[in-house]
Design a protein that fits this description.
binds zinc ion; 14-stranded mixed sheet; Aminopeptidase; about 20% helix; OB fold (Dihydrolipoamide Acetyltransferase, E2P); 18 strands
Length: about 325
């Protein structure tokens, strides 16, 4: 069935959407090499009462899929008659990469390193620039939904600049296992949005290439919590089952010996300095190298792909803030 009833637009203009209206759009952002449009699927629910604009974005990396289901399910539950303000769901930000089932854009760029792009730049620059300019810049708040990369798994964790009061509040409302405070590397959607005056956080919802029910439910809960907190919908904020682990910094531990890798702790495990965290074996099954935690911390994410070249990632270690 072809959904021909879905309106094609070149630019999302929230002011032209009537109050109390639910809309699905295909945003014609760029065209491919045959001149055929690449459409970005966007949903908008505009309440009858004026209020904040919350944007939710998914699949900035084309193989990070849980956020797609989060957005679909959120919009199924929203009643525009009682909604205050507007929620915009960019269901798939990086459509070409999504179709290729890959993280990166078709020109090989990681688009979450080049935001906000440029008007007259290369393929990925222009794509990103138009997305920011035609869609994202209208948001007051942004929750950008990601997952781990191929071959790795993540805890449910939030990246945010916790020095920002609003971003900190939004982060706590996600009920995640871990909150990692950082400024946001240059070129991320979060930092580009922040530069536009948007309160933005990144939510890392589990693993790539699949829909995970538990992670999707957790993501939905976090977004509804923010909407309640902003006065967009009525309801009771769901408190966290446990306080999140607050990390002030984090880093990846890399393998300096190629081989068959086994990472020992699970995600969200707290580990101690000196604890054995990984073993690399050669292809005959003999132990080649063992790795130990350089300091106390928590496992934010880890590699699960056994084949690990020299320089491959082992474990993403979060370090608790001094007094958390
Ligand atoms: Zn990502």
């Amino acid at each position: 069935m072809i959904d021909t009833h879905i309106e094609v637009i070149k630019r999302l203009d929230l002011d032209t959407i009537p109050d109390g209206c639910f809309k699905k759009f295909r945003v014609h952002l760029v065209s491919n090499g045959m001149g055929q449009p690449i459409y970005i699927p966007v949903m908008v629910a505009k309440g009858k009462k004026e209020g904040p604009v919350l944007g939710v974005t998914a699949a900035v990396h084309g193989n990070e899929l849980n956020g797609i289901s989060v957005i679909q399910k959120i919009f199924k539950q929203i009643d525009v008659n009682t909604l205050t303000g507007t929620i915009v769901g960019v269901i798939a930000f990086n459509v070409p990469a999504l179709l290729n089932q890959e993280r990166r854009f078709i020109d090989g760029e990681d688009i979450n390193r080049i935001m906000p792009g440029s008007e007259f730049g290369n393929t990925s620059d222009v794509y990103v620039y138009r997305m920011m300019e035609r869609v994202i810049q209208q948001f007051d708040y942004l929750i950008d939904l990601h997952t781990a990369s191929f071959g790795r798994i993540n805890s449910y964790y939030i990246r945010a600049n916790m020095k920002g009061k609003v971003a900190s509040r939004m982060s706590h409302l996600q009920n995640a296992d871990i909150i990692l405070s950082n400024q946001g590397a240059d070129g991320t959607l979060r930092s580009a949005a922040t530069d536009m005056g948007i309160h933005a956080i990144t939510s890392e919802l589990g693993d790539p290439n699949r829909f995970q029910k538990g992670m999707i439910s957790a993501g939905i809960e976090g977004i509804f919590n923010v909407m309640i907190d902003l006065g967009m919908i009525k309801g009771k904020i769901v408190p966290p089952a446990a306080s999140p682990i607050l990390c002030g910094r984090s880093y990846w531990i890399y393998a300096n010996e190629g081989g068959v890798l086994e990472v020992l702790p699970n995600i969200v495990d707290e580990i101690k300095q000196g604890q054995k965290i990984a073993v690399t074996k050669n292809i005959f099954g003999d132990i080649a190298k063992e790795y130990f935690a350089p300091e106390d911390g928590v496992v934010i994410g880890k590699s699960v792909h056994p084949i690990n070249q020299t320089g491959g990632r082992i474990l993403h270690l979060g370090v608790r803030e001094a007094n958390s």
